[in-house]
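Before going further, learn to read the protein records used in this course. The integers have meaning only within a learned vocabulary of local backbone shapes. The record below shows the convention in full.
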Amino acid sequence: MVDQKEKMSSTQFWVGMLVPPFLKWANPYLKKFFKLTEFDNETKTRVFSKTYPVYFGFLYGLWVTALLSTGFIALIWFMISGPALFPDKSYAVPVFLGLINMIGVWFVFGALLDILFWKISSENFRDYVKFRQLKSGWGFDIKQQIAALFKIGIIYYILTLPVMAYLLL
């Protein structure tokens, strides 16, 4: 019998092994398709030369957690409310609707949360966000990233609409 701890580390291994290369592969295509502008050399120099408070890492972590939680909230809502909303359907229907919407919410509401967090952030924290983006290999203008996320979400919902309609009918 496989220990749960071993399963988790295996999952983490495969996600860690597959996601970064996929993002590295997709990066030029997304840049070209959404016409994303990279940070200029002056911005790169400025954000790498600064020293940031330690708590910025915690705040950035909260930002990412808030973005991820939006999708999980949609999934949980469908799982809890689904049987009441769709009493004649199998429990699998609200679960699949929740999974589909979880991904869409990450894009659409994630973009809206990014707008909110970007607007209320100080200039120094914005530089820290740029710094983290550059370190991860995603050094594009934040406002353009937000617009691209929103567009991806809309395209995603358009593409998954037939699947959602099939589940509901």
